[in-house]
Amino acid sequence: MSTRTKPEGKRPTRRAVVKGAAVTLGAAAFAKAVSPVAEFAEGLTVEQFLRRHYKELSEDDKREVLARIERDTEAEYGAACKVADPPPLPGVKFAYAINLSKCNGNGKCVEACHRENNHDRDTNQSYIRVLELEKGSMDLEKGNTTYDHAVPAEGKDYLPVQCQQCDAPPCTAVCPVEATWKEPDGIVVVDYDWCIGCRYCEAACPYHARRFNWKKPTIPADEVNPDQGLLSNRIRPQGVMEKCHFCLHRTREGRLPACAEACPTGARVFGNVADPASELRWILANKRVFVLKEELGTKPSFFYFFDD
Amino acid sequence: MSDGVATARHSRSYPRFLLRMLALSTEGSAAFYGWMTLLTAVFLVGVHAWARQMADGMVVTHMTDHVSWGLYIANFTFLVGVAAGGVMMVIPAYLYRDREMHDVVILGEILAVAAIFMCLAFVTVDLGRPDRFWHMFPGIGRFNFPISMLTWDVLVLNGYLLLNLHVVGYLLYTRFLGRTPDPKWYVPFVMVSIVWAISIHTVTAFLYCGLGGRPFWNTALLAPRFLTSAFVAGPAFVIVTMLFLKKRLRLPLSSKPIRTLVSIVRVTILVNLLMIASEVFTEFYTGGAHTASAQYLFFGLHGKDALVPWIWTAIALNVLAAVLFLGRRAMTDARVLTVACVAAFAGCWIEKGMGLIVPGFVPSTLHEVVEYVPSVVEWKVTAGIWAFGLMVFTVALKVAIPIFSGEERLSPRP
Question: Testing the interface with A: which of B123, B142, B399 to mutate, by most A Cβ within 10 A?
């Protein structure tokens, strides 16, 4: 700061000394005020800070990134894990269909998602919500996601909702940094190391499918699912978006998503819509199928139907 | 004079100009020091709250996956309007060649600069990962332009900031040199800034109204409504500032610019109320599921009514302000005018902030009613950013006034 308060002043005036002291005090107070940022910076390495976008990673970069995440998970959660990055399979377009005549709202899918995808235990997070609706009505306005009684309840229908993996996704369009995109097999993914956490996608999604990491997820070491995917269920960092990824670490290797495997009623039908012999294709051809909020033009890859 | 000589002269006089500005901004009366100390204290409280939010995560806010934008984005939206509102001085000054307005138009430009700084701060504190801010820089990051409206907003806001910084800086510097500003160095920028001011608030409205999944925002009236309330709140702030400079600091300002601004607000405040009425009619007369947010905002929904007091306060303030502005005493009585301006500013702040951003999320897209009330941390951060903006505004005025009055001039070197 200039000690010259008057153009003709030769020695620092008393006022200048007081001002100098005030500035020093102010700077010290500022340093103290921002000090918690150091806690945040501690958990951040230079490699993490400088990591390129997923699509710009070479195979070598990717191997390093996967190894780093495995090390970090071990260090922070005390759990050994294997992080892979299975690519989308050619000729595959994943889709889901739910038989609402069979779904009875038991919520096993919600729990399976919670465990499979290393969700935060404190908030009991899951990518799936099940709405309890008045029988014969699709009025979401009268729905309830927090029901807590024996199911199926008299006079109720159940509607599980998760990411609809839209073919015209509003969430990817709004992202200012291309941190979320649709993969060739139809799955909308998030690069957790690129997302800036602006939550514009969460505002844009018409299906309440996106979740934000309001804090660092807490998971006991013995509950961490060690079978992880880079773009799917690896433990997410604080301050970024996440969403249902059709368990791509399983489905790209020929297994069912955790929610489909857990469903005791057989309501959930998952498959490759590009395969003419798939059960999914039979349902689309023979059942009265509908999608949620069709009028918005989002083109979901997620279908609902009733048995006649 | 050759360009080389001019450059050499600027390389000496420009640093002196900057130094003089620094000196001016740290010198003043006891009241000035008191005011700046207060603002610094509030600012530091905000900085600390934000630092905690960064360390502990945004869980310290009361935002949720249901209401995922809150007080920060509400303030951001309102302040984009305040920044754009300064143009209501620029248009009379430059397009209608209003000489008295021309003398004080720099106030509007300074307000725009301070407001944009606050906007950028509010967006930054809303980010979950501010450390990844560079991902947005074209070249080294991935800038999703032109698809994402947010990238448009980044461009127009920063562009508007640069335009106003240039105009304000150029005018101050030439006055400091004791020269008449050369129109070719600022008038074209001012003309661009007029269109640009409209664009910043239009693009900010497009952020929301382009989302099909949020029926409450999905209205073509949003951008015009944003602009109209901006042209209430911006001039209201400027009027209060001018009254303060005239009455308290006893600066010899003409009262004609104030009267011009009052005349403008008399129109914009009514158009704004008309647009609110039009929205309310469309929502409630149509009915159905799309009315749920408006129902929640104005009357409460399923027994939840956290926003009801906010919106009715906003409407009461807006109506009060309209009545006061339209009355004859707004032109003659400074106290009445001050009350009218404060009511209009506060009314627009609620209406466009908490009254517009939050109900977009209630009920959620799956029709769950989860309420939102800002947390203490959010209030602290918000107060800190307002204090910061007021500091920028105060210091800029502190520097501009003596330079514009001719009190401060480059003294010839001995």
Answer: B142
